[in-house]
């Protein structure tokens, strides 16, 4: 995978690695744990977890946390008249600082159904070092677990897939992997994955 290992962190440098990282996503059943999913590394250690309506009790709101439960991102869909008149639905990702206050980190534009074929999902990062208003976009089809997040140069920064041996055993797509390019912020990547999961599969919906 191509990528820029010198890319500055979006959430925190602690979530950037000097080598490629492959993490596994396991979706949780609604009846047992309120839905959402957990992200584990090769040692089965929980790195991230995502909770949605089944845990938070609010629609179109997600929390990305570290494995120990410390919240990293609050993700909300932006509604209202502006969205109603737009061709996109908008999602906003806010980081938490040590005082608990929130800062806008990224925005994701989800084309409405009638525009989806012509307009890809785009993500813009709200930081000074990223001057391009459309820094990343989604290539491929997330429901099939065959998609990538690419930057404005077309370089893949993260890739979603299913291991062949798992695909043969499981008809569902509840277990898949995300390979993150060196230097890329893994927390940011899974903030985007959390929204894609909500849009297409709804493991975090009520």
UniProtKB/TrEMBL annotation:
Q: Which organism is it from?
A: Escallonia herrerae
Task: Give the top-rank taxon of the lineage listed in the UniProt record for this protein.
Answer: Eukaryota
Q: Name one Pfam family in it.
A: LOR
Task: State the protein's name.
Answer: Protein LURP-one-related 6
Upper lineage: Eukaryota, Viridiplantae, Streptophyta, Embryophyta, Tracheophyta
Which protein family is named in the record? Belongs to the LOR family.
Matching entries from PANTHER family are given as: PROTEIN LURP-ONE-RELATED 6 (PTHR31087:SF3), PTHR31087
| InterPro entries membership | LOR, LOR_sf, Tubby-like_C
């Amino acid at each position: 995978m191509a990528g820029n290992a010198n890319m500055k962190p979006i959430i925190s440098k602690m979530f950037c690695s000097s080598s490629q990282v492959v993490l596994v996503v396991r979706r949780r059943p609604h009846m047992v744990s309120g839905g959402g999913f957990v992200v584990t590394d090769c040692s089965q250690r929980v790195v991230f977890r995502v909770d949605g309506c089944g845990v938070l009790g609010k629609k179109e709101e997600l929390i990305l946390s570290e494995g120990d439960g410390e919240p990293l991102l609050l993700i909300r869909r932006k509604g209202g008249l502006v969205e109603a008149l737009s061709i996109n639905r908008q999602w906003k990702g806010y980081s938490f600082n040590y005082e608990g206050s929130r800062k806008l980190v990224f925005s994701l534009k989800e084309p409405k159904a009638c525009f989806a074929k012509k307009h890809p999902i785009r993500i813009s990062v709200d930081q000074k070092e990223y001057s391009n208003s459309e820094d990343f976009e989604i290539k491929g089809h997330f429901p099939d677990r065959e998609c990538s997040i690419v930057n404005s140069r077309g370089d893949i920064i993260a890739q979603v897939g299913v291991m062949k041996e798992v695909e043969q055993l499981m008809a569902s797509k509840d277990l898949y992997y995300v390979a993150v390019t060196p230097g890329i912020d893994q927390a940011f990547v899974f903030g985007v994955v959390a929204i894609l999961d909500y849009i297409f599969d709804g493991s975090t919906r009520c």
